[in-house]
């Protein structure tokens, strides 16, 4: 058996004998051949294959001797000169490679990998360079495209407004994008830990429910809003889309979670809901008020209609005189009703009225002074346990009216069979200063009357000058100052009215 | 036939009584200025075997004991006689009209003032057997 060595010897002989092999190599295998005189660098020769690679027609190759240099990009020619100078200085260096760009005839660039061979003379000086050129334009473009794609996706993944998370089937983090780290103050240490930990406790069952759905129905997004503390600061609401990802066996192995911040949205929603609630309350009050107005005015108008009819009919003069007197009474009552209604409308429609700080004790003493005669006359003991420096933000006219109403009621409905007393004291509740007005008077049976105490035209004792307006007006005034009024009472034991003054100075209901 | 007028407004009570007499709706009328007075009288009559009313014209908004309190208290008195209550009010609150239907003694809801037409309707309702 002959060894292949004869082939090597044969090929070497062929290379020396004639140009067939050399022509095949540079004319067919390579994309260009360059032979350069390093001692006269303006002189160079390129083969016709290079021109074909650069888009020239075989019949019309450039005739100018320096056309090769014009085809090379000037910057790359300069670089090549520097590289060659460096390599030539290194006596041990014979070959190297360098990427060069050429102008194609159509104006585009052709990237060539130049494998260079330095030919040296006896003194070791590099005198010639043989450059074997390979067209690598396609590879360069492919690589550039791949880089572009990678950049594109990495931009999407590190997007400034979307969180992207992956967990394993047990809910431990396997991937987290930069935004998530950044916003929630985590680092790569959370990978492998439970994703539940970052969610506020009360939202965890909700999260687990959605994860369970991902197992039941994989590859479909399931949505949920979860709250997480933001960098240990305020809690943020995020809208998430969870998706169970399945492996080849159809098992859910990962959960992909994509989320974005909806805090502002949820806060606005809550604000709207609050506003809706306020509006609903106002609407209810308005409707109630409309019924009260219609009832009160209608009852007088009914009387007037009947009386007018009777006066118009047959009847004796005595009877008519009675009707006329009744007509007078009815019109006077109608005028009074309208005046009462006007008081209420004024309180309810003034909207935001300026509150001012007032010394509560001072105002109480002023009101007691005004009632001084009756208090002395009925020997009522009065105690005022209110700090002298306690300030309450109030509409001053309303405070005057509320104090006068509660204290004059306490005097009017005082105990008659035991020594009467009135005690005023204050205490604090979150958002409120509470003033209690306690008496040991007649009291009101709250089992029967709880819903009516603060109603319009409600009276609870046989008292002819009671109009049933006082507590109704007080309630409206307290509510107009964002407070409330409550009562504790027992018949023949006494009543305690508690006025809750809102410490909120701002009177705007919508804030 | 005896009618109670339970009404706190003296003008309205007077006018209702006048209309009842004029239309000869019944032979006797008793007026009460609030639910408490009417209830006390009813209770006493029931206990002592006195005259019980056939018809009660009941206002809703009254001091001390209002119309609703009266109806609740009335239910608690086991009165053998079939007493017919007509609610007479200026209220046009839909809740009020609806609420009266829950009281078995109430057979009608009337707007003030009581006129001939209203009394005719009451007469008609009295003739219809109460289910």
TrEMBL record, chain A:
Keyword Repeat: no
Transmembrane regions: none
Residue span, PAC domain: 96-148
Residues annotated as domain Histidine kinase: 292-505
Any one GO biological process: regulation of DNA-templated transcription
Pfam families per the UniProt record, alphabetical: HATPase_c, PAS, PAS_3
Catalytic activity: ATP + protein L-histidine = ADP + protein N-phospho-L-histidine
Enzyme class: transferase
Its EC number(s): 2.7.13.3
Gene3D superfamilies attached to this UniProt entry: Histidine kinase-like ATPase, C-terminal domain (3.30.565.10), PAS domain (3.30.450.20)
Keyword Iron-sulfur: no
Annotated GO MF terms: protein histidine kinase activity
Entry keyword set: Kinase, Phosphoprotein, Transferase
PROSITE patterns registered for this protein in UniProt: HIS_KIN (PS50109), PAC (PS50113)
Name of this protein: histidine kinase
Source organism per UniProt: Hymenobacter arizonensis (Siccationidurans arizonensis)
Lineage: Bacteria, Pseudomonadati, Bacteroidota, Cytophagia, Cytophagales
Automatic annotation (TrEMBL), chain B:
4-aspartylphosphate found at: 59
Response regulatory domain segment(s): 2-127
InterPro entries: CheY-like_superfamily, Sig_transdc_resp-reg_receiver, TCS_response_regulator
Entry keyword annotation includes Lipid biosynthesis: no
Keywords, sorted A to Z: Phosphoprotein
GO BP term, example: phosphorelay signal transduction system
Matching Pfam families: Response_reg (PF00072)
Protein known as: CheY chemotaxis protein or a CheY-like REC (Receiver) domain
UniProt organism field: Hymenobacter arizonensis (Siccationidurans arizonensis)
């Amino acid at each position: 058996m002959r060894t292949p060595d004869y082939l090597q010897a044969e090929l070497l002989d062929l290379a020396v004998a004639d140009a067939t092999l050399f022509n095949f190599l540079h004319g067919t295998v390579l994309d260009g051949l360059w032979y350069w005189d390093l001692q006269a660098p303006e002189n160079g020769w390129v083969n016709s294959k290079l021109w074909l690679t650069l888009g020239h027609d075989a019949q019309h190759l450039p005739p100018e001797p320096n056309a090769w240099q014009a085809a090379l990009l000037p910057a790359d020619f300069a670089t090549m000169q520097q590289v060659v100078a460096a390599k030539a200085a290194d006596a041990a260096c014979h070959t190297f490679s360098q990427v060069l760009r050429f102008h194609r005839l159509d104006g585009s660039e052709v990237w060539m990998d130049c494998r260079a061979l330095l030919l040296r003379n006896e003194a070791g000086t590099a005198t010639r360079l043989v450059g074997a050129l390979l067209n690598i334009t396609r590879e360069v473009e492919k690589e550039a495209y791949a880089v572009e794609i990678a950049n594109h996706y990495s931009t999407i993944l590190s997007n400034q407004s979307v969180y992207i998370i992956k967990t394993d089937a047990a809910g431990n983090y396997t991937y987290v994008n930069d935004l998530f780290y950044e916003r929630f103050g985590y680092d790569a240490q959370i990978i492998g830990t439970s994703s539940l930990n970052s969610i506020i406790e009360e939202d965890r069952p909700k999260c687990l429910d959605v994860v369970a759905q991902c197992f039941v129905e994989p590859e479909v997004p399931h949505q949920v809003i979860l709250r997480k503390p933001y960098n240990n600061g305020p809690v943020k609401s995020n809208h998430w889309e969870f998706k169970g990802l399945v492996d080849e066996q159809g098992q859910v192995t990962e959960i992909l979670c994509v989320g974005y911040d909806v805090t502002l949205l949820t806060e606005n929603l809550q604000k709207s809901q609050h506003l809706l609630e306020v509006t609903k309350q106002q609407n209810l009050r308005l409707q109630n008020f409309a019924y009260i107005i219609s009832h009160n005015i209608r009852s007088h108008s009914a009387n007037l209609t009947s009386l007018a009819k009777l006066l118009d009919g047959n009847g004796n003069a005595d009877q008519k005189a009675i009707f006329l007197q009744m007509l007078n009474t009815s019109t006077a009552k109608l005028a009074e009703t309208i005046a009462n209604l006007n008081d209420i409308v004024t309180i309810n429609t003034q909207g935001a009225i300026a509150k001012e700080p007032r010394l509560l004790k001072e105002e109480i003493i002023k009101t007691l002074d005004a009632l001084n005669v009756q208090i002395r006359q009925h020997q009522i003991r009065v105690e005022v346990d209110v700090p002298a420096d306690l300030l309450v933000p109030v509409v001053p006219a309303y405070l005057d009216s509320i104090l006068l109403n509660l204290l004059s009621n306490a005097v009017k409905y005082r105990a008659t069979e035991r020594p009467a007393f009135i005690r005023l004291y204050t205490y604090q509740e979150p958002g409120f200063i509470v003033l209690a007005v306690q008496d040991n008077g007649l009291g009101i049976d709250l089992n029967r009357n709880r819903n009516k105490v603060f109603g319009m035209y409600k009276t609870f004792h046989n008292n002819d000058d009671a109009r049933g307006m006082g507590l109704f007006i007080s309630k409206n005034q307290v509510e107009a100052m964002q407070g409330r009024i409550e009562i504790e009472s027992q018949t023949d034991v006494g009543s305690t009215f508690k006025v809750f003054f809102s410490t909120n100075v701002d009177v705007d209901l919508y804030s | 036939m005896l009618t109670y007028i339970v009404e706190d407004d003296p003008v309205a009570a007077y006018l209702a009584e006048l209309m009842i007499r004029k239309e000869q709706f019944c032979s006797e009328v008793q007026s009460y200025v609030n639910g408490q007075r009417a209830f006390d009288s009813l209770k006493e009559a029931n206990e002592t075997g006195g005259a019980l009313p056939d018809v009660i014209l009941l206002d809703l908004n009254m001091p001390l004991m209002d119309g609703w309190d009266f109806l609740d208290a009335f239910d608690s008195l086991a009165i053998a006689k079939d007493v017919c209550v007509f609610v007479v009010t200026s209220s046009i609150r839909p809740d009020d009209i609806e609420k009266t239907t829950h009281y078995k003694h109430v057979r009608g809801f009337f707007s003030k003032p009581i006129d001939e037409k209203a009394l005719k309707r009451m007469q008609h309702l009295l003739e219809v057997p109460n289910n």
